[in-house]
Each structure stands twice: as structure tokens, then as C-alpha cells.
Design a protein that fits this description.
The protein is of the alpha+beta class. It has two domains: 2-49 and 125-173, Alpha-Beta Plaits, CATH 3.30.70; 52-117, no CATH class. The chain is 47% helix and 14% strand. It is rod-shaped and about 85 Å long. The relative contact order is 0.28. Pfam families: ActD (PF11821). The chain crosses the membrane at residues 52-74, 94-117. Keywords: Membrane, Transmembrane, Transmembrane helix.
Length: 174
């Protein structure tokens, strides 16, 4: 069963025009692939700023707080040892480990947040079966239409794409 239609374009403008027409015709499950960022396509696809930065900050602060709290609890309550007259709660001694753990947790949070938000690792997608799709990172532009629902079929997609003169249109299985 065909689940995707992949149209190949030579330039960004016809791909964006086809994307605009697909959105106007009611297609919602579609994606664009290009060798460089195409801001108008991103806007039409509803791309927005990623929350990965906020996830990293939250994870970093949580890790730093946990590291500092652990050091404080161990030095002040669990095993208080007065060495050389230093105070039990010694802020300068706690900061290096707190900083390192905070950075580690921020990096791990950014990685895990990015993987979760991108629904990765995704080992296969139907567009990978297209023979020319590797050119999406070189010099070609692709528009992928997911054939989902009774109103969206391959014939309707072909009629929609024809005025934009794609180089090729490939039907891909699920």
C-alpha cells in the first residue's frame, strides 16, 4: 500500500509553491527536505523554536542543585569534619564539582530532549526508499505527502503537484 508520495524539485521556489498549494488543499501530513534552510517552507510547515535550550537549562540547574545539596548534606550533617578550622559549609570548595555536574546534566538533558522531541532514533522512514533521496543533502528539493485518510489519494496528489513541474514523483510504501 502506498503511504507517501515524494516529489523531487530542482529549486526551492517550485517546492515552496507546491507546499503552499498542498496546505491550501487541506494536506496536513507533509514534509519538505532541502540541502539548505528554506525559511518559507519552515513557516508553511509550522516549524517553531525548539525547547531544547530550556530543557538543557532545567537539567543543568537540577544537576547543579543536586550536586551542591549532596555536598552540603555530607559535609554539614552526615560526616561533619572540621579540617584546619574551615567552616563545615564551605561554598568555594563546593563550586567546582557543582559546576561540572551542572554542565554534565545540561549536556545529557539537551541530548535526551533533542532525541525525544525529534522522536529519534527512527531507523526507517518511507522517503529513504526513494532512489534519488540522497540528493536532498546535495542539490535537490523534496516534498513528501502522506496519503492519510479517504480524501487524500495518489491521483489527487499527482493533480496537485503537476502544475509545479516536479522532476519526478515517486510512490512509496509504508
Amino acid at each position: 500500500m502506498t503511504t507517501h508520495l515524494l516529489a523531487e524539485f530542482e529549486a526551492a521556489e517550485p517546492m515552496v509553491a507546491a507546499l503552499r498549494a498542498a496546505r491550501a488543499a487541506g494536506w496536513r501530513k507533509l514534509d519538505a527536505h532541502a540541502p539548505f534552510p528554506v525559511p518559507e517552507a519552515a513557516k508553511l510547515l509550522g516549524a517553531h523554536e525548539s525547547p531544547v535550550g530550556w530543557i538543557a537549562i532545567a537539567a543543568g540547574l537540577a544537576g547543579a542543585a543536586l550536586a551542591y545539596g549532596t555536598q552540603w548534606w555530607l559535609s554539614v550533617h552526615a560526616w561533619p569534619i572540621n579540617v584546619g578550622g574551615r567552616p563545615l559549609h564551605a561554598l568555594p570548595a563546593f563550586l567546582p564539582a557543582t559546576t561540572i555536574v551542572g554542565i554534565l546534566w545540561a549536556a545529557a538533558g539537551a541530548l535526551l530532549g533533542m532525541l525525544a522531541l525529534n522522536r529519534l532514533p527512527r531507523l526507517h522512514h518511507p522517503v529513504f526508499a526513494a532512489s534519488q533521496f540522497h540528493r536532498a543533502s546535495e542539490d535537490r528539493f523534496f516534498l513528501s505527502l502522506e496519503l492519510d485518510g479517504p480524501d487524500f489519494d495518489a491521483a489527487a496528489a499527482h493533480r496537485l503537484l503537476a502544475p509545479h513541474r516536479p522532476l519526478s514523483v515517486a510512490a512509496l510504501g509504508g
